[in-house]
Write a structure and sequence with these properties.
The structure is a homodimer of 903-residue chains.
Chain A lengths: L4 E3 L8 H16 L7 E4 L1 H10 L6 H16 L2 E2 L5 E2 L1 E7 L9 E5 L5 H9 L2 H19 L4 H14 L10 H19 L7 H15 L3 H10 L7 E7 L10 E8 L6 E9 L3 H5 L6 E2 L3 H4 L1 H18 L3 E8 L2 E9 L4 H13 L5 H7 L2 H7 L3 E2 L9 E2 L1 E4 L2 E7 L2 H9 L4 E5 L7 H6 L2 E4 L7 H9 L2 E4 L5 E3 L4 E4 L3 E4 L3 E5 L4 E4 L4 E2 L2 H6 L12 H16 L3 E5 L3 H9 L5 E5 L9 H9 L3 H25 L4 E5 L12 H13 L5 H13 L11 H6 L3 H18 L5 E6 L5 H22 L7 E5 L2 H5 L1 H5 L4 E4 L1 H9 L9 H8 L13 H18 L4 E4 L7 H9 L4 E4 L4 H25 L1
Parallel strand pairs in A: 3-4, 16-17, 17-18, 18-19, 26-27, 26-33, 27-28, 28-29, 29-30, 30-31, 31-32, 32-33
Antiparallel strand pairs in A: 1-2, 2-7, 5-6, 5-7, 8-9, 8-11, 9-10, 11-12, 13-25, 14-24, 15-19, 16-23, 20-21, 21-22, 23-24
Helix pairs in contact in A: 4-5, 5-7, 6-7, 13-14, 13-15, 13-20, 14-20, 14-35, 15-35, 20-35, 21-23, 22-23, 23-27, 24-25, 27-28, 34-35
Protein name (chains A, B): Pyruvate, phosphate dikinase
Pfam families (chains A, B): PEP-utilizers, PEP-utilizers_C, PPDK_N
Keywords (chains A, B): ATP-binding, Kinase, Magnesium, Metal-binding, Nucleotide-binding, Pyruvate, Transferase
Chain lengths: 903, 903
Amino acid sequence: MPKLVYDFAEGGKDLNDLLGGKGANLAEMVSLGLPVPPGFTITTEACRAFLAARREPPGLRDAVGTHLAALEEKAGRMLGEPGDPLLVSVRSGAKFSMPGMMDTVLNIGLNDATLAGLAARTADARFAWDSYRRLIQMFGKTVLGVAGERFEEALDKAKLHNGAAADVDLGVKELKVLVEEFKGIVLTATGRPFPQDPRTQLDMAIRAVFDSWNGERARLYRRREHIPEELGTAVNVMAMVFGNLGADSGTGVAFTRDPGTGHAGVYGDYLRNAQGEDVVSGTRNTVPLQELEHIDKCSYDELLQNMRKLENHYRDLCDIEFTIERGKLWMLQTRVGKRTAEAAFRIAVQLADEGLIDIDEAVARVGGDQLGRLAFPRFAAGSDTPPIAIGIAASPGAAVGRAVFDSKTAVERARAGDRVVLVRRETNPDDLGGMIAAAGIVTSRGGKTSHAAVVARGMGTTCVCGVESLDVDTERRRFTAPGGVVVTEGDVISVDGSNGAVYLGELPVVQSPVVRYFEGELDPRGPEADELVAAVHRILSRADAVRRLQVRANADTPQDAARARRFGAQGIGLCRTEHMFLGERRELVERLILAGADAERDEALDALLPLQRADFAAILAEMDGLPVTVRLLDPPLHEFLPDLTDLSVRVALAGARGEPVEHDRRLLAAVRRLHEQNPMLGLRGVRLGLVVPGLFTMQVRAFAEAAAERARAGGDPRGQIMIPLVGAARELEIVRADAERVLADVAARTGIALDMPVGTMIELPRAALTAGRIAEVAQFFSFGTNDLTQTTWGFSRDDVEGEFFTVYLDKGVFGVSPFEALDRDGVGRLIEIAAAEGRARRPDLELGVCGEHAGDPASVRYFHRVGLDYVSCSPFRVPIARLEAGRAAVRDAAEHAVESDTR
Amino acid sequence: MPKLVYDFAEGGKDLNDLLGGKGANLAEMVSLGLPVPPGFTITTEACRAFLAARREPPGLRDAVGTHLAALEEKAGRMLGEPGDPLLVSVRSGAKFSMPGMMDTVLNIGLNDATLAGLAARTADARFAWDSYRRLIQMFGKTVLGVAGERFEEALDKAKLHNGAAADVDLGVKELKVLVEEFKGIVLTATGRPFPQDPRTQLDMAIRAVFDSWNGERARLYRRREHIPEELGTAVNVMAMVFGNLGADSGTGVAFTRDPGTGHAGVYGDYLRNAQGEDVVSGTRNTVPLQELEHIDKCSYDELLQNMRKLENHYRDLCDIEFTIERGKLWMLQTRVGKRTAEAAFRIAVQLADEGLIDIDEAVARVGGDQLGRLAFPRFAAGSDTPPIAIGIAASPGAAVGRAVFDSKTAVERARAGDRVVLVRRETNPDDLGGMIAAAGIVTSRGGKTSHAAVVARGMGTTCVCGVESLDVDTERRRFTAPGGVVVTEGDVISVDGSNGAVYLGELPVVQSPVVRYFEGELDPRGPEADELVAAVHRILSRADAVRRLQVRANADTPQDAARARRFGAQGIGLCRTEHMFLGERRELVERLILAGADAERDEALDALLPLQRADFAAILAEMDGLPVTVRLLDPPLHEFLPDLTDLSVRVALAGARGEPVEHDRRLLAAVRRLHEQNPMLGLRGVRLGLVVPGLFTMQVRAFAEAAAERARAGGDPRGQIMIPLVGAARELEIVRADAERVLADVAARTGIALDMPVGTMIELPRAALTAGRIAEVAQFFSFGTNDLTQTTWGFSRDDVEGEFFTVYLDKGVFGVSPFEALDRDGVGRLIEIAAAEGRARRPDLELGVCGEHAGDPASVRYFHRVGLDYVSCSPFRVPIARLEAGRAAVRDAAEHAVESDTR
C-alpha cells in the first residue's frame, strides 16, 4: 500500500505531485530549519482514491491517527484535551496553486468541552468563544453545506441587536448566544447537531477538502488555468497558531521582491491582531510590511532573514504567509510567487545579474504570454485628464470599458460585445466569471494581495484595488467618487493598472515601449530605454541565440511583411492571396465566377494577372533574401459573392415592387449554383485550382514573373508555392505539373532561372495519414492547424462562437478551445504521423506550421518538440514565438544536462 | 536488365501481371498444344518504362529483333520479303481486360513491294490490295493520328463513285486508286509519306499501343472499372492469319457456356470470309456458331475439342476468338469469359456440380455486385402490351426511359435527372459516356458479342442489340419500328434485356424471383424456384456457413426491421431516430426548439416520450432476441425547421404586403439563431445531447421503458445505446453517466434488470485517433464511415453532387467516390488505428460499421480483413453483405492453405 500521509519533516519541494505545492513547500521550510507549526500532509493519491471510490482508501484513517499522535507529541497538546486542547487547521493544497478555490477549515478541535481550556490557555474567553463561533460557521458552510448567508444573517442581526459596529465589538455574552444560534442553524439545516468529537470534525473536514477539488469554482479555475482535472488535492493538517491574540500578535503576507513591478526589496502587508483570512479577503486594511519593524523588530528581523534564506534556496521570488502569536514568528506557507509580466522579465534578469541563475534559466522563467501582455497598449502620457480616484496598482495595463457592478452583468455585456470594467467593493471567488469577462477590475477595498489583485495578475487583466475613496453601491449599480462624481452602470471609465488611476470617460491609449522596441524605434541600450526594455532585449537575444525553430510570419501585404521583418520574422510562412481578390478587384472576380464562356473567364484572369504580379513584387521586395510562401487561392468562390439569403430577399422585394432586377437575378443564379451546404467542406483550396481552369496558373505566373523581375533588378527573391487543402497526392501532382510548366515558361521567356519549390498545406486528416505518398510530390509541408483542427474534431471555425462551445468549456470536454491551444492527442498525433512519414520519404522535407497555433506559447513548445523547422504566426506574435522557441531549446538542453548527469 | 520480350512458348497464365491477360493466355494455349499462330509478347514493364521515359527502354529494340527472327523462323516467312511476306498483328493486352479500349494494328509488313508477294501467295490480288488499304487506314488513324473520317469519307466516295454497295464490291482497280488516295491523306495530314519499311511500321505500331494505355477512352474505362492507372499494357505481336481468304475461311468468337444465361453448351457467332474486327464491331451479321458444323465440320470438331480442353484447364467459362484460314483452325485468343450476374451464379454451381471446383470456390466466383444485379426488378409477366420490336437479349434487366440517340444527350439528360435509353445503330468506344449514363441500351446491329453487348454486360446495364427491324435515324433523332411506329427523342420506351423485347411506353415492373426468395416467398427447393434461385440459395447458404463477419441492418422502422430479418440480418446495427422526430411530431420538435423556458421544453419532451417508446417497442418486437442498436438524435436541430432563405423571403414579402407574420417572425428568429455556416460541423450528435437538457435522457428512457415492457411480456429485448459524433472521451462520459442514471431508474421502477450497453460511433478522425481513451468509456464502437470519410477528406456529403467531384473522377484523383468504396489509405487507416487501440484497451470491445460502405462488396472484404465483428447495411444489401463476408472468409482460408503449403 502506498504511503498516504507524510509528516512535514518527511517531505520536500520535489514531492509536489504527491504533497501538493503547499505541503511540499512546508516540508522544504522544515528542512531549512524555519519555524513551521507541526503538521502532516495527506497525499493527492489518497484524494484521487477517495474521489474514485467515494470513500476513504483503506489505511488512511489509521495513518492519520499515527501522524496526529506525532503532531500532538510535537505540539505538546492533545486534540480534544479539555484542559489545553490542540486545535488544527485543515487546508487544501494542489500541485498547482488554486488560491481560494478549494476549502479550508480552521479551529478543528474546539467543542463545548475544549472551549474552556482554550480560554484558559489564552486567558481570553472572548477569543475562545469567537473561535468556536468561527469554527461552527466555517464547518457548517464548507463541510456540512449549510448556506453561508444563514450564519451571516444571524451575525449581522446579533451586531445590530447589540449595537456592535464590527465583529470584534461582540463580547463573550453575545458570542455565547450566537454560538447557540449557529448550532441551531446546523441542526435545522442538516438534521444533526454540530459534531462535538474532534476526530470526527477532523475526518469530516478532510473529506470536505477532498470534495472541494470537484467544486464548481475549482473546476472553472482549472479549466481557465489548464490544470488537469485528474490531479486531486493534498490536505494539510497543521497545529493552529493565532495571530488574533492581541496587539503582540498579527499576520501577514510578504514577497521577496515586488511582484507587480519586479523592483528589488521586500514587500508585503501586515495586519495586527488578525488571522490570515482577514488579510487575503481584503476586508480589513493592512499596513505595509515595513511597519512591522516598528511594531516587533525582533520578529521582523527574523522574517527578513527567513525570506533571504528562502529566496536564495528557491532562487526565485518567494511569496510567504506568516503569523506572529504573542511575539513568536511562525512561517505558515511559502511558494514561488506569482508576478506580473513586467516583474517576471525584470526579476529574471536581476536574478541572472545576481548570479542566482544563469541567462538560460532567465529565458525559461518568462513566458510568451507575459511578453504578449507587455505589448498591451498603455494610456498616453501627458493627458491632462485628472483621475477621479487613485487606488493600488494591482495588475498593470490600460483598460477602457463600461462600468458594471456584478459578475453576471459583466458576463452578459461582454458576451454581447461590450468591453466592461467590473467595479466591486471587494471580489470573492464567486466573481470569477465576471473577472474573466472584464477588461479591467476596480475594487474599493483590499490590498495588493487581495483576491481581486491576485486573480487579476494571474489572468493578466488590468486591476486597481483598494480605491477607498470610492463609494460602491452595488444595489443601485453605481459608485460615487470624491467630489460627488457619480458613475452609473454603462458609463465608460478608464483604468490604469500601472499607477492605480481611475478616469471618467475613454482615455487615449498608446503603444507600450516594448512594442516600440520591437518596431526598432527604441534602442534597448539607448537612454530612452528603461530597465524593462533592456530585460526583454537580453532575454529575446538569448532566445534567438539558442532556438532551433525558425520563426516566420503570416503576412498578406507589404506593410505586414515589413512589420514582420522588423519584429524578427525569418520569412513569410503564409502569404494568403484571398484579400488580393477583394476591394476594387471584386468586380473582376465576379466576372470570373459568372463567366459563361472560356473567353470571358480568360479575360478576367488576364486582367487580374498584372495586379497579382504587383502584389507579389511588393512583398518579395520587403522580404528580399528570405523565403516567401504564397498560398494559392483557398476560400470558396462564393465568398466573393453576396449572401444567398440577403440577395434572395432583395430580388424578391424588388420583384414585388416591379423594379428591374436583371443583374441581381443573374447574380442570384450564380450564388445559388455555387451555394454549398457546408462551404468549409466544399469547393475550395486545390479543388478550386482543379475546377477553375487557369486560376492557379495565373497566380503562379504572376508570382514567377514578380520573382524574375526582382532577380533581374539584383534582388534575392525566394518564392515558395503552397497548395491548400490537398487530400490526395494526385491533386498535388496535377497542380504541381501545371505550375512547373508555367515556371519553365516564365524562365524561358525571362532568361531567369527560377527555383520555386512547390509544397502543400497539411490541413486535412487524409493528407496527414497519406503524408508519405504526398511527400513524393511536395517539396515542403506546412501544417494548417486551423483547418486540421476543424476536420479532426468536426467543428466549424465559423460556428465556434455557437452555443455548444461554451457548454463544452463548462463541462470540461476541453480546458481551452482546440482552436486556441493545439489538441495534442488528436491533431498533434496527425502532425506527428505526417512529420515522421513525410521525412521518411523525403529526408530534406521542410516542415512548418502556419495556423493560429503557431503563435500560441504552449503550442510552439510542442512544435519544437516534434521537430518542425519553423512556425509562422501573425507579425505581432513573432517575438512571442521567438521567445517560446528559445525556451523550448533551453528546456531541451536542461533535460539533456539532467540526462547526462544521471548517466 | 529484366527480360522485356517473351515468346508465346515461354509464358503462361500466371504471368499475367507481366504479359497481360491476352499474352499470358496465348502462352497457356501454346503450352496446351493448341494451334496458335507464332508470336511474342512485349511486357507491361517495357510499357511502363516507355511511358515514364517517353522512349523505348534500352534493349527493347534488340529483343524485339531477336524474337521477330524466331517468329519468322517458325512462320517460315520473313517480314518485308517481297516474294512471300510475313504479316503481323500488333495488339494491346493489359492485365485486366479492356475490350476495344486500346489500339490494334493489323497487316504490319505490307508495303508497295510485299503487296505482290501477298497477292501471289493468296492468289487473291483483291484481298492483297484490300489488306493494304486497311493497313494504311488503321495505321494512319491509330499510329499516325490522322482523323479517321478522312479515310471513311474517301472510302464512301469511292463506293458511291463506283456504284458499290459494300466494301467487298470494290475491285482491285478501285482499291489501287483508294490506296493512292489514302497515302495522299497520310502525307497531307502528317507531312510524311506512309512508312514503307516493315520494321519501322512494327516499331511505330508498338509505340502506338503503349501510348494507347493513356488514351482518353482507356482512362475513362479504367476509372469506371477501378483498374489501376500505373499497370501499363503488354503488346502482342503475332503472325497474321486470314479469315477473309474466301468461303473456306472465316472468323468467330465462342463461349464454352452461355455468358448471358449460364446455360451449358457452346455458344458463339461465326462470320464467313471475314476478319475478327468484323465480328466484334457488329457491322456484319453473324451466324450462330453451331452452323459452322455444316460449313466446316472438321474445324468445328477441332474447335469444340479445344474449348473442352480450355474449360477443363481453366475450370471456368472461357471466351475464345478463332480464325479459319482456308480450312485451318487458328486459336487467336482465350480468356475467362465475362458473364451476366445470372450466368455467374448458375455457372459457379454447375462447375461445382461437375466437380471442376468445390463449393467454396463457387462462393468465391460470384460477387455481391452480381447478386445485387439479380435483385433488379423485371417486367411484370402477363402484360399484353406487344413489343414494337425484338432483338438479341444481350444484358438482362428491365429498363424504362426516354429514348435518346447520342452519347452527349444521354449524359446531359441523365445529369438532369431523366432516365434514358440510348438507341444507336451500333455503339463504339466513343459512346461509353452515354452507355454509362443510360438505364438501357438498344442497337439495331451487332450480336451478343458486339461492343454494345460486351460493355453493357460488364456494367450490368440492360441491353438489347441487333434489333434489325429498327430503322435508327440518328440525325433526325428518331427510330422507326415495324408497322410505322415512330419513336422520337424523349418518348418513353421499355427494354427487356432478358428476352430482347422493346416496348413503347412504360411497362410495369416486378420483383425478381431472387428478391422473392430473400423475402421468403419462394422456397429455393420448391417447384416454383428455378435453377438461378437454387444456385443463389446454395451459394448464400455456404457463405453463411463460413463467414466470420456478422451482418446486421440499418433499419429505422418496424417494417424495415422485419424485412432485414427476413433477408438474414442478425440484428440492427443502426436504428436512426431522426425520422421519429418528423411527420406529425414536427410540431412538438418545433416547440422543443423554440422553447423559451425549461418548462416549455420539458413539456415537449414529455409529449415525445410515449411516442418514442412506442417506436422502440415495435422495433424490439420485430428483432426479439437480436441486438438493436439505437443511435440517439444526430442531425442539427435546424433540419427540423424551415430553410432560412425561403423563410426570409416569405417573411419579407408578407411584410411588404402588410400581411401578419408574427409566427413566421418568431420562427425566423429561431432559424437564424440555429443557422450554421457548416451544419455538418456544427451542433449535432452528442453536442445536441450536451446542449439540449433532457433530450438524450428522454430517448434513453423511452428505449429502456420499451425494453422493460418487452422483457416483462416474456420477450428477449437486446438494446444497445449508441452516441453519435463523439470526439473526446469526456463527451461520452457525461452522456453515459446520464444514460446509466436513467437505466437504473427505469430498472428500479419496473423491477426489470436492464443490460443495455452504451457505445459510440467512431465517425470523427479524433475519435479514431483517441480510440484507446474512448474505449475506456465505450462498450462498443460502430464506425460511421460516411461522416468519417467526410471529415477525413474534408468533403461535404451534401455537396458531392457538386462540380468538383466529377472533375476529380475525370482527373483520376480517385477512381470511385470515397463515399461509395471505402478509402483504405485515409479512412481505412483511421479504422485500423481505432480497432487496434480500442481492442488493446478493452479486449471484448464490439466493433461494427454502419456507414453506406457496409453494403459495398469491396469494402465488406476490407472490414473482414481488419477484424471487425459486423457490418450493418440497408436491408436490401444484407444478402450482398452476407455473400461478401462469406467470400472474404473463403479467401482467407485459401490464403492460409497456400501459406501452409509453402511453409
